[in-house]
Inverse folding.
């Protein structure tokens, strides 16, 4: 979601600069600053940016060189309406007030001056709007470039996690034998007779708890799904969910390990996954 874009347009003898920057956010958090004469265009700009950039904490600043002073004109219809209301009220209340006093009061009202609009203003806005649209494309291009880098990084780290699973499988057979030998030695040290058949049954049940075949299968499946999902548009939230499932399987492997070498591999998988999670905040 991180990106920056800038563009400049010239119209009616003025230079207008458009700056848009985007950083991470769970939703669309949009801040817009426009010249005074285009304050009424904020909703149009908001829709334009939301359509192109979708999500992120986005700042849009349109600036003009020098002071941008909007032109105003007197709305005679509003003036006449206020004048009639005050005159009728004064007459009804038998208050003697001059026309000059009424007009002076009306002219101080905030709604009698309206921003002057003409065709030149519309042409100017169309030029600025095109510049804003172009800047949005530049930000999006910047984001895509960052996304390509992140995709390569994620792919490498997911491949490392799968590699560590392969290494765990190589240690798995030896691990079961070590646990079995350890239990037999401890039982033999008691110097008491025991039912060997019962012992074998209990041993099988006990060793089943150390089996993490299902966890390995699910972990590989989640890793494969993660790679597939990266090809989809706006997949950041989905990738975050998948990474949570990957972490859950890794934690289960660690809890069942009972082997120092496997635990070290589990720690390395967790480290790679944390690096993925840190960068997922940058994905749309």
């Amino acid at each position: 979601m991180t990106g920056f874009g800038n563009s400049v347009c010239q119209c009616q003898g003025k230079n207008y600069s458009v700056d848009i920057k985007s950083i991470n956010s769970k939703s669309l958090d949009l801040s817009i600053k426009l010249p005074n004469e285009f304050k009424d265009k904020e909703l149009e700009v908001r829709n334009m940016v939301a359509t192109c950039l979708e999500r992120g904490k986005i700042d849009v600043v349109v600036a003009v060189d020098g002071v941008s002073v909007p032109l105003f004109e007197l709305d005679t219809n509003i003036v006449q309406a206020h004048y009639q209301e005050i005159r009728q009220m004064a007459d009804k209340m038998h208050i003697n007030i001059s026309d000059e006093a009424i007009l002076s009061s009306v002219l101080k009202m905030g709604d009698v001056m309206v921003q002057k609009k003409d065709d030149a203003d519309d042409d100017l806005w169309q030029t600025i709007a095109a510049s804003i649209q172009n800047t949005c494309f530049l930000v999006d291009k910047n984001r895509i470039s960052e996304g390509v880098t992140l995709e390569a990084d994620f792919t490498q780290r997911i491949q490392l996690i799968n590699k560590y699973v392969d290494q765990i499988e190589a240690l798995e057979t030896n691990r079961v034998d070590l646990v079995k030998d350890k239990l037999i030695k401890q039982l033999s040290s008691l110097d008491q007779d025991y039912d060997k058949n019962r012992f074998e049954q209990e041993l099988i049940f006990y060793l089943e708890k150390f089996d993490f075949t299902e966890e390995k299968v699910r972990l590989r499946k989640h890793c494969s799904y993660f790679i597939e999902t990266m090809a989809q548009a706006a997949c950041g939230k989905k990738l975050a969910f998948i990474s949570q499932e990957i972490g859950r399987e890794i934690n289960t492997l660690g809890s069942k390990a009972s082997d120092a070498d496997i635990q070290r591999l589990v720690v390395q998988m967790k480290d790679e996954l944390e690096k993925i999670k840190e960068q997922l905040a940058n994905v749309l």
Notes: The first strand starts at residue 3 and ends at 11.
